[in-house]
């Protein structure tokens, strides 16, 4: 009766085993938990734990690397000891505990005995945070190769189409979880919470992912009676390693020509190991060999074509920031996975094209290369808007006349004369630093020589005025108080503090300046619209009337952020073709007892890809960003060609069919041995 009920449920679920829906929901919740936590992790390091940027970045990448190295451990445990179900279950518990510990470690009130809003013993928070992250890395990395392989186990041998659709749904759930968490947790983090003082709410930002991980665990357990569970077959990784080692050793011993060649070098292990293990090892090594070029794809993909700093303004008054462009990728994934799976692939099949998994991966690598070519083209346009900074041995000076009459400035000794109108500024003038000694300012009310001590390869702004006092040369600044009294200046939420008479502020980042506040003025509306990426010097001349002069130091960006969308589209197409097909290929070509191991090998290519990025960018002497994009595109295109050649020699196999044949041969051999033993026993009895 129970078998009949399950069968009916499968029909109701469009021919899919009901158990896979629990697995997909589990993956969605787990990915929400991981990406939600990861989205606020760097800010947590720098703003809460008060780590420096470099140290925070190092710890962050160490954590990510650990998350992609631990899949090997999880795969070995699953295929050799506990099985996939128990491995996912136990490591999910470790995962959930890690999320809870991290959330608790982010509570400032935990050690805030004097109630000032800051932890009195930050070491406690650091220790809890590190313990939490290590547990999370063990959990998320350990279950990574097991969940997708466990989902593939739920299908029968004749359900290849459904299994292929499952891997698409599985990848869709990953990106749906990533999309929602990337939107939700930063918003939660930006809210304020706390017992004694209100501050950024990291406990809740980490707490929500912890809750989602607990939900993932519960959902996975609910479906436990419906799962098809493949039992582990001993320490298979150790046996494979021994088999490979013995084959190499035995082949070396018999390297002379007097020994006949064997079909495959692993056949030299046949003296010690059975045909089944040798055949399974061949399957695994053939796939792992194809994995060798794959890290280059991840090296390019992890750049996310997001280094461009483009104008975020969109017509209609809506504004997004450059880092928010990251959500474009998961949005496109959520849209494109069902489109590709239900429209593109069936259309290709109707055209009678044999679009195999390896061909899909090859096309994916090519599209990723083209994405970076597109990125390089956009970067070239961005570079055209950049100012020309001083070269080696040069200095640039900008003049601002804050007086009421025109003035002529002569750069000594006899280098150049420049006339500056009242309340006007020159562009940046370039000089050889060693030749420039002083400047002479001449006007109807002022004659003065100003000595200069300038650094090479620097930009300076010289603001001058005549009256009771003079303003000497200053480093480039954002605000100039052109009054004889101190004033407090703020722009939106940015407070520049008190500016002394005839003084300047430092540059500050202002996200969206709409008004300026000063004594007697609550919010003076700006007469000039600032552009994203622009740099400005603003002179306050009369606070009561809020008389303001603007001087543009660096022009704003004119390349719109929307030009990144084609890059993301190409990269998303590449990801759908490459990653989904890679997961499916890794599962379909793996022997039954090493599904998780090959999934772990697939994930290991991601870790190696990140290492490649560090090596290439660290060793590269390329200064232009577009040239670095071209470098990555060229490398990936070369790797794509190599992979296409390697894939053309690959012959697809059916591991289940091969293992079934081996089982039949083993049964026949056992029967033959049994018959021989019976005949021998009968002969002995006659004697």
Task: Give your account of this protein's structure.
The protein has 687 residues and is of the alpha+beta class. The chain contains 18 helices and 19 strands. The longest helix has 32 residues, at 122-153. The protein is elongated. The two termini are 57 Å apart. The model is unreliable at 1-12, 313-318 and 467-477 (pLDDT under 50). The chain crosses the membrane at residues 6-25, 32-52, 58-76, 88-107, 122-143, 164-184, 204-223, 283-301, 327-348, 360-378, 600-622, 629-653.
Short description, anyone?
The chain has 687 residues and is of the alpha+beta class. Helix content is 54%, strand content 13%. The radius of gyration is 33 Å and the shape is elongated.
Rg on CA atoms, Å? 33 Å
Unreliable stretches:
1-12, 313-318, 467-477
Mean pLDDT across the residues is 79
The proportion of strand residues reads 5-15%
Total strand segments: 19
Blueprint (SSEs and pairs):
Blueprint: H1 2-12, H2 19-39, H3 41-48, H4 53-69, H5 71-82, H6 84-105, H7 122-153, H8 160-190, E1 192-193, E2 199-200, H9 202-222, H10 236-253, H11 275-291, H12 295-301, H13 328-350, H14 357-385, E3 394-401, E4 407-412, E5 416-420, E6 424-425, E7 429-432, E8 438-443, E9 447-451, E10 458-464, E11 474-475, E12 479-481, E13 487-491, E14 494-499, E15 503-504, E16 515-518, E17 521-525, E18 535-542, E19 547-554, H15 565-588, H16 595-619, H17 625-648, H18 655-686
Parallel strand pairs: 3-10, 12-18
Antiparallel strand pairs: 1-2, 3-6, 3-7, 4-5, 4-8, 8-9, 10-11, 12-15, 13-14, 13-16, 16-17, 18-19
Helix pairs in contact: 2-7, 2-8, 2-9, 3-4, 4-7, 4-16, 5-6, 5-7, 5-16, 6-7, 6-9, 7-16, 8-9, 8-13, 8-15, 11-16, 11-18, 12-16, 12-17, 13-15, 14-15, 14-17, 15-16
